[in-house]
Amino acid sequence: MGDRLGGGSVRQHPDLTAPALAGDRQRVVVLTLLALDGVLSAIAAAFFLPAYLGTVPFPISALLSGLVNAALVWAATHWTSSPGLAGLPVWCWLLTVAVFFLGGPGDDIVFGGAGAMQFRPLLLIVLGMVPAAAVLRRRLTF
Question: Residues 103-131: pLDDT tens digits?
Answer without folding.
Answer: 777 777 777 767 666 788 899 999 999 99
